[in-house]
Each structure stands twice: as C-alpha cells, then as structure tokens.
Design goal:
By secondary structure, this protein is an alpha/beta fold. It has twelve helices and eleven strands. Helix 1 (about 10-30) runs parallel beside helix 12, helix 6 (about 140-150) packs across helix 7 and helix 6 (about 140-150) crosses helix 12 (about 285-305). Guanine binds next to strand 4 and helix 6.
Length: about 300
Amino acid sequence: MSARILEGAAVAAAIRERVAGQVRELSALGMTPRLEVILVGDDPASRSYVGSKGKACQQVGIRSATHFLPAETGADELSGLIGRLNADPDVDGILLQLPLPKPLDGRTFLDLVDPSKDVDGLHPVNVGLLHQGRPVFVPCTPAGVIELLDSAGVALQGCRAVVLGRSEIVGKPMAALLLARHATVTVCHSRTRGLAAVCSEADVLVAAAGKAALVTADHVKPGAVVIDVGVNRVEDPALVARLYPGDPERQAQLAKRGYTLVGDVDFTRAREVAGAITPVPGGVGPLTIAGLLQNTVTAARRRRGV
Ligand code: GUN
C-alpha cells in the first residue's frame, strides 16, 4: 500500500496568512517588522534561498534587506556589520546565511548576533532555552516539521521518534522539540551501528543526514511517518533513473538543469512501506521560510513590547 503524501505547502500558506495578520497589527502601530539578511560569498544555493526569503518577507509585509558581502570578506568586517545591526533599534531580526565561505567559521559569528534578534534560533542562549523546554526562537526547519506533524494529526506523545542527523540547525533542535512533545527520541548519525535496525523502530522518522536516498524501505517500520528534510543535488543520470524509475519529469529536470533535488529518503521505495511521507521537493521545504517569518514577527513583538 502506498503512503499518504504530506505536502507542506498548505500548512505553510496557513502560517503565512497568520503572520501577515500579525504584521498588519504591528504596522498599524507603526512597528512593521524588519529583517536583515547577511549573505557572504556567491554560493548559488544560498543565493537562491536568500532570494526566496526576501520575497516571502515582501509578501507578508515584513521589511527586509540583504547585505551581499564578497567571499573575501574579513572577520572584522563581518563582525562589524553584525554589531551595527545589533545596535540598530529599528532592526528586529538578523539572519546570517550558512554556510560561510572558508576561513570564516559560522559558529563564531552566530555567537555575535543579539539573542533577541536571532530569528534562526542558533545563538547559544536560544539553543539553551529550547533544550530547557522554554523556547523563544526555534530553528525554522524543525519548527516547521512539528507544524506539519500536528496538521497531519500525528500523535507524538509516547511514540518512538528517530532523528537521523545531529546538525545544530535541524537534528539537535528536532530532537529537543520531539522530546518536549513527550516522544521517546533516538538521535542517529553517520557512525550509528545498525542504522537500518534503529530507524526501523521509529513511529516517526525524521531524516536530516544530508545524504541522498540514504533511507530505504528497510529503514522504515510499516505504517511509520517519514519526514524527509534532505535537499541533495543529484547529477548522476544512473542514480536518478534508479531512484525514479519511469518518471519522465525527473529525467526532463535533470536534462534541463543538470541536477535534480533528492531527499535523504528513497521516496519511491519508502512510500510503499510508510504510512505517511513527505516528498522532496514540496514536503518540508515550504515550511522553513514560513518559520522564519513567524520568528521575525515574534522578535518584533517581543522587542517592541507588544
Ligand atoms: N542555510 C541553509 N538553511 C539555513 C537556515 O535555515 N538558516 C541559515 N542561516 N542558513 C541556512
């Protein structure tokens, strides 16, 4: 039997609508939220993400600007910019797009962002608050996954949840959020022994390992909910043909763009075992930006005492 497909677009649209209403309320008070995005270097994927974030802000009425800095930007220059944005009372949110080009270290600069403007939820203060169960800013993707699970009516309390991946931006906060919802949580990673066996115990499996189609049918418990956070560019025609047999759309995309986006889950096989599953693209993706918009409004409300 084929799984129910969980698409994020409708949930993301509902969040955006809610946020747009909150922005209107703030604007009526002369407090339109303002987000400043920093992009260092010219990574095409980051450029595309940053463009989408700016557009989404515009659509809900949030003021936003992007600071495009060259890849050779020095540490002093970047920390100076973050310091100026921290000090500007009209700025509500600061987002430093990751990854930073070498030799800049993301952690060093995330630590400089004023926690009250940390709309990515990556400052140690916000990470600590999340892990203590009193979140203020939650990283956007895992927050979106929880919204998606809730909207699909997935019962988290007491369930076995497995998070595959231990990144600061997805895996670790995802585990904290699931734990806060009373799931029994296991975090796996590249060095986990017997990965398929551990994953196949999950009622809810969240794949965020950054490896195309790592999760196959034998990682999935029959009827499980599978959430695929992975976004991997696959250029190998043989791999695309194996992952999407008889799918002319994927072949056409590969021919046109030179790559196709593949999640961490082998969707074609896993959907035959899972009870519900997110596609890539179109699953979790739309929720990430919706989470950023929500965090920006939260920052504006808190900072402006609304
Ligand atoms: N790079 C990829 N995803 C993200 C994100 O959610 N936030 C930031 N700051 N950088 C990213």
